[in-house]
Amino acid sequence: MNKTIPNSFRSGPDDRGRFGQFGGRFVAETLMPLILEVEAAYEAAKIDPSFDKEWRRLLKDYVGRPSPLWFAERMTTHLRKNAPEGMGAKVYFKRDELNHTGAHKINAVLGQILLAKRMGKTRIIAETGAGQHGVATATACALMDLPCVVYMGAVDVERQKPNVFRMKLLGAEVIPATSGSATLKDAMNEALRDWVANVSDTYYCIGTVAGPHPYPQMVRDFQSVIGVEARAQMLEAEGRLPDVLVAAIGGGSNAMGLFHPFLDDPEVAMVGVEAAGHGLDTDQHAAAISRGRPGVLHGNLTYLLQTTQGQITEAHSISAGLDYPGVGPEHSWLAELGRVSYVAATDNEALDAFQICSRLEGIIPALEPAHALAEVIKRAPTMAADQIILMNLCGRGDKDIFAVAEHLGVSL
Ligand SMILES: *Cc1c(COP(=O)(O)O)cnc(C)c1O
């Protein structure tokens, strides 16, 4: 049962897994028993102190949590230079790029793999686009001695060779998905097919706040460790809550994780940043909320990039992690309610932010949070100097230096 909190933005989903009209479980009849089993197991695990204790032990000793809250002083000073007198918010980073494996995905993967073990599952499957969720899942499976199969679009296998090799080093099997456009959505379909065929022993580990209920809620709950930590750290550093939260949106898990603990604080504004690719007015972007329409993908109803006939269209972003044609259903709901604003940053804006952050803060960010930083760069100078903007620096950029070099015309 989901406890409904009256008049709360934190009350969703309802018992049908809906956030308003969004979410739910749009799956084949054969998948329904598996999903109900995951839901029942998760409901039991989340109130079991021993489950929580083991997850937190891993977060602390294996992942390296809590991640620090960093006052980006040079960035703040830099942005004040072009701001009118008395303007230019203080910029803080929540440093989830320091996690083991270099991003936030490991937080929810460890929670899910512990859940799988608790359910007696002996085999893990996952889908991956750029390979980051595949690497996080393969990592947790190595640690917990579970066989891991990762479905990855054949096109992505070709594009993301280093991550394919990483997964193999970690002991995972990578299966190229050749149907459709042979990218992420096709890998998700193959993973769902595998799950139906291997009901009894297999757990499907999803990488973002998408999929059928209870996945959007479960992944959000695990990722909320980010916002819970950030809230306490900000109160300690500044004695008050931030004025604005900013996070990049692929499927939306790092953003949901930061936002959720603050949703009922009316003084805290929130901004999700989608990938505008070559521009929102081209067909080369990944802005499902800004330019999509509601439809069903991967078991839930949400905003999607689709043609007028309802065919899902390919997303484009310089950042592989934002290259998803949908968005988690809770974001669709928060967008309709107006609680969170959704904007977009282009490939070029992200590339500029990537370089500015590297030079000013000595932190090479992943291209995904570089989109969030592009919004911070636009927004901070419009805010008063005593205001605070907190950005989720959800991944580090080591993985992206080759793509960035290519875009800058540098040959390595
Ligand atoms: C995968 C990934 C994303 C996109 O996923 P969300 O679910 O939207 O968080 C963003 N940043 C990084 C670093 C990623 O690896």
Automatic annotation (TrEMBL):
The keyword Lyase applies. It is an enzyme of class 4 (lyase). The modification N6-(pyridoxal phosphate)lysine is found at K105. SUPFAM superfamilies: Tryptophan synthase beta subunit-like PLP-dependent enzymes. PROSITE patterns: TRP_SYNTHASE_BETA. Pathway: Amino-acid biosynthesis; L-tryptophan biosynthesis; L-tryptophan from chorismate: step 5/5. The keyword Heme does not apply. This is Tryptophan synthase beta chain. GO terms for molecular function: tryptophan synthase activity. Its cofactor is pyridoxal 5'-phosphate. Residues 66-395 form the Tryptophan synthase beta chain-like PALP domain. Keywords: Amino-acid biosynthesis, Aromatic amino acid biosynthesis, Lyase, Pyridoxal phosphate, Tryptophan biosynthesis. It holds the Pfam family PALP. PANTHER family: TRYPTOPHAN SYNTHASE, TRYPTOPHAN SYNTHASE-RELATED. The lineage of its organism: Bacteria, Pseudomonadati, Pseudomonadota, Alphaproteobacteria, Acetobacterales. One of its GO terms (cellular component) is cytoplasm. The beta subunit is responsible for the synthesis of L-tryptophan from indole and L-serine. Belongs to the TrpB family. Tetramer of two alpha and two beta chains.
